[in-house]
């Protein structure tokens, strides 16, 4: 099926994006880059201070956006620290949505070592969290066996069926639409009914993309990048995700049963240029290429 500009714009409409507390310091005003009410994920990385996540969430709320802070299970030293975090996020930053992940630590600092333990704690309901994202791994995880990932996803589906909290899957970023589509087909056949927010890379140099892919344990789709490394000039050129976006738009349009209903961008420090690119695509300011992908019209 030939993809149209409208198909592509429809896929990206309502996109979300990610920011770290450190990169947020370099942004004078989020409103200069993003439509008001955009959902913006705020990371809680190993070794960082949860207060930084809370403060950025507060700032986003004050500027007219929807903060979606990460709750990394293994980063919390006890139940009290998790409760204090939730209380601050909900009272100070008006947070109603969170992304719950296991976290990057090998060993938990406290009693929580998995997403499901946070879900089962009852604390999300206690603090009136209305929507929760849980992790998805289109290419698997270097740290978790595939069977364990499959069981965890089944458990999260089960939890969602028995909760009033809305749950969705937020995936790790991926460079290859075929890997994403195969993964979606596989988990849906296994009983997944949760909507899916697909993580995609923002605009960045090939060198930066390779660095983050290696840090995150991205698997087979890295070959999409490594095929280009033979051309040294391409290492510093900005890479755009137009091919994966157009292929996903074609898939979603031609498969009405697809559960993919949102795209989430990882800007890797380049929020401004990623947001500008996405906004142009949504406005239809693109030219479709004859083979695949598209280009932005009138680039500055």
Structure commentary:
With 300 residues, the chain is of the alpha/beta class. The chain has a single domain, classed as TIM Barrel. The protein contains twelve helices and twelve strands. The strands form three sheets. The protein has an eight-stranded parallel barrel, surrounded by five helices. Strands 8-9 form a two-stranded antiparallel sheet. Strands 11-12 form a two-stranded antiparallel sheet. α2 links the parallel β1 and β2 (39-42). α1 packs across α11 (242-254), α3 (50-62) packs parallel to α4 and α8 (177-189) runs parallel beside α11 (242-254). The radius of gyration is 19 Å and the shape is globular. The relative contact order is 0.15. The model has no long low-confidence stretch (mean pLDDT 92).
Write a short abstract of this structure:
The chain is an alpha/beta fold and 300 residues long.
Number of helices: 12
Approximately how much helix is present in the residues? 25-40%
Q: What spatial order of strands do you see in the largest sheet?
A: 1-2-3-4-5-6-7-10
Cα-atom Rg, whole angstroms?
19 Å
How large a portion of the residues is in β-strands, by DSSP E? 15-25%
Q: What gap, in angstroms, lies between the N and C termini?
A: 32 Å
What string gives the helices and strands in order? Answer: HEHEHEHEHHEHEHEEHHEHEHEE
**Might you state the CATH topology name?**
TIM Barrel
Q: Give the CATH architecture.
A: Alpha-Beta Barrel
The average pLDDT value, as a whole number, equals: 92
Can you tell me the residue ranges where pLDDT is under 50 for at least 5 consecutive residues?
none
How many structural domains are formed by the residues? 1
> How would a crystallographer describe the biggest sheet?
8 strands, parallel, barrel
Name of the CATH class: Alpha Beta
Net shape = globular
